[in-house]
Amino acid sequence: MTTPTTTPQAPLSLYGFLRPKPERAEEVRQLLSSLVEPTRREDGNLEYHLHEHEDGRLFLYEVWRSQEDLDRHNAREPLRGFLANLLDYLVELPEGYFNTMISPYPAANSGGTATVTAAGASGVGDDRGAENASSR
To answer: How far apart are CA 116 and CA 46, in angstroms?
Structure first.
């Protein structure tokens, strides 16, 4: 995947499906569930949601203040170990999307609204229809 270009005012959204191997499904569900609250407390995290689809796929929706904040999150254990060995846990690589948010989003730590004048999106897909789904 290509790393998107963001500005400090343009939050980065990450979303996608993960299909756990049947014999590891509960382990993956527990690991990702255990990350929700600690991740929400991380500096730079604006949204973090885990959903389970009826077919057993897990759906993650994350919004980060910056790529640097997301990189710092991904470097933490146990997530780093999980990411380094994805195919030990998953049937296939995740179907994931990274986008720069183009809809207004409350600015982190400022109480205002951030707007973006230019957006760039890249990754496995360019799904600009998925906007802010804030429901924390």
So the answer is: 16
pLDDT tens digits along 55-87? 999 999 999 999 999 999 999 999 999 999 999
Contact 130, 99 (CB under 8 A): yes
Residue 48's DSSP bridge partners are 62
| CB distance 89 to 61 below 8 Å | no
The Cα–Cα gap between 37 and 51 comes to 14
Cβ-based neighbour number of residue 86 at 10 Å: 12
d(CA 115, CA 11): 10
59: CB partners within 8 A, 6+ apart: 15, 16, 17, 18, 50, 51, 52, 53
The span from the CA of 105 to the CA of 91, in Å, is 34
Q: What is the mean pLDDT of the chain?
A: 79
Q: Are 23 and 105 in contact (CB under 8 A)?
A: no
The H or E element containing residue 47 is: strand 45-52
pLDDT in tens, 80-111: 999 999 999 999 999 999 988 888 777 644 44
